[in-house]
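no rush on this but wanted to send it before i forget. theres a chain ive been looking at and ive put its sequence and its fold in token form underneath. i want to understand how the tokens follow from the sequence so walk me through it. thanks a lot i owe you, the record is right below:
>
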Amino acid sequence: MKAVRVHEFGPPEVMRLEEVPDPSAEAGQVVVRVRAVGVNPVDAYVRSGSYARKPLLPYTPGTDAAGIIESVGSGVAIKEGTRVYTSASLSGVYAEKALCQETDVHELPQNVSFSQGAAINVPYATAYRALFQRAHAIAGETVLVHGASGGVGVAAVQIARGAGMSVIGTAGTPKGRELVLKEGAHAALDHKAEDHMDQALALTGGRGVDVVLEMLANVNLGKDLRILALGGRVVVIGSRGTVQVDPREVMSRDAAILGMLLFLAPERDLKSIYNALFAGLENGILRPVVGKELPLAAAPNAHREILESSAYGKIVLLP
């Protein structure tokens, strides 16, 4: 089968499409025939060598894919032919087939396409965990979602709106802001405008926002703290460097800065997340947006684009 392989950490060009042996499922494992692969910013961080966890070289990137169970090992309950999406992989998913633990594949509702299925795990699980398991957001609160036109951003907008929150999203292009509004935000701001944080504060009548989902903390965190409501929370989902903040901004609002990495979530929390996501996908509240589909060989281009500020929906690779 064909798979993208990384033999050294570095720029996107270190990813090459190669011929590798087909995986084989052992006890508790399944082989997924991959129909679509979701590209996440974390994939690019890992490939560059800058991420906290580094896989052993060589490796095949990716955790998020959707496809069909092709074969199963002993002791596996899921049936061959079942439509699934993945939340982890033993072999990597930038490939025609992926080897996974049974616990890391999840049934894909019939109303969700394979490309949409590849856009579920990291974006939707991250958004759900940030909102409910870290920020403990509740109906009636105001949520500011930075980068709301990207994969995690769109997921956060849909989840927050479906849970009865007032949602403000930011995006860097008119097309992106149109998407943010279409997916349920009450307001969409241009994050390239110098006064967009002032605009967010004004939308709350000066009260401040209750929850900020921060995708680029090294740029925005200090500004986030100044527009929080009393008891406000910032969840740091992404950052590309260091940042200096004034602790008094946190103290004066009785506020909290919360970090999160999806792979640190305990099994109990993950089980809750995937049950909630299935329900939301099945009833149509959650609708993954695919912005671009590319062939598997275009993985380097996908990694360049995923880090651009003009994100629109999810980038998906098709084996």
